[in-house]
Amino acid sequence: MMTELLSDRLNRPLRDLRISVTDRCNFRCTYCMPKEVYGDEYAFLPKSELLSLEEMTRLATIFVQMGVKKIRLTGGEPLLRNDLPEFVKMLRKIEGLEDIALTTNGLLLKKYGKSLYEVGLRRLNISLDALSKETFSKMNGRGIDPKLILENIDYAKNLGFSVKVNMVVQKGVNEQEIMPMSAYFKEKEITLRFIEFMDVGEDNNWSFQQVVTKKDILSKLLRHYQLTPVKANYYGEVAGRYCYENSHVEIGFITSVSESFCSSCTRARLSSDGKMYTCLFASNGYDLKELLRGNATNEELANAIWQIWNTRNDRYSDERTELTAKSRKKIGMSYIGG
Ligand code: SAM
Ligand code: SF4
Ligand code: SF4
């Protein structure tokens, strides 16, 4: 197979795969799945359209043969899929796959954390946007108390997971939580990563005015802490990292808006209905499920993936303007997987 030389038109290799295992979620975060859009009538994918564990594993194996080293499981809320531990078990058997991680809102960790740990999952990114009950319950759209997520973060740490916390910061919504969140997670020795609010999908009424940039956040933090930049661990690392003075605890920034990182973007995405996307802000995907269910051979699937990656030239964040944010048709974050 044509593996070693696989890179796209901007010379970016294929290294990461994000698999969205479901488009459903038990939260209705205002910036992702606002309840006015994702209400009772919303047509989520029928079960028959979702890839089975075998189908996802088959594709993942081919992706790994083509250069992927890391797989992130995401969604929607991946813990809504009760066969997730079985899936991790299957993925762990793929030769050459170096890392598997899970992004979750954390609500169901008490239910699945132990079995996920037992099958060998070690890394969790848990999303939490505020410590304040009032702010968080509004943001998650389901009135969920942040205490539940904090308890589950402790639970996951105690099980032995390596945990990072992701906080989306939105102007006028949860900026006031930057300092309490950083103090809390510094004390807990957990990496907190601030994510700039992005114009993913078409449902969150995004505008530049609502973005709190890394620069804004850093200047707040620097009034209280001394922070030293930490060198990137590897090519294509998404988070810009800093370390607190006299401490090994880190904080990070995911700066898709203010400092784009398209030039080293090595990530492909697979939606839960088997479409491959080469950018988080894409309008269209490539239907691998049709090939899978049409009895394509592994070689045919590999050729299709090769073609897609080889002709890729996405660099949306480099090109973002208020106009592209409004005019381009984009796939929703809960569907494509964050
Ligand atoms: N449901 C899981 C969760 O929330 O962790 C996994 C999927 S969620 C789409 C993945 C990540 O995307 C979360 O950390 C979430 O906060 C982030 N996210 C969703 N919409 C976003 C937006 N408009 N801008 C920035 N980050 C966003
Ligand atoms: Fe669900 Fe995650 Fe989107 Fe929130 S960010 S609505 S938890 S998929
Ligand atoms: Fe990669 Fe697209 Fe994000 Fe740029 S905008 S970093 S190409 S996913």
From TrEMBL:
Q: Annotated pathway, please? A: Cofactor biosynthesis; molybdopterin biosynthesis
What cofactor is this protein dependent on?
Answer: [4Fe-4S] cluster
Q: Which SMART domains match?
A: Elp3 (SM00729)
InterPro entries with a match to the protein in the record: Aldolase_TIM (IPR013785), Elp3/MiaA/NifB-like_rSAM (IPR006638), MoaA (IPR013483), MoaA-like (IPR040064), MoaA_NifB_PqqE_Fe-S-bd_CS (IPR000385), MoaA_twitch (IPR010505), MoCo_biosynth_MoaA/MoaC (IPR050105), rSAM (IPR007197)
Q: How does it assemble?
A: Monomer and homodimer.
Role summary: Catalyzes the cyclization of GTP to (8S)-3',8-cyclo-7,8-dihydroguanosine 5'-triphosphate.
Protein name (Swiss-Prot/TrEMBL): GTP 3',8-cyclase
Per the UniProt record, the source organism is Peribacillus loiseleuriae
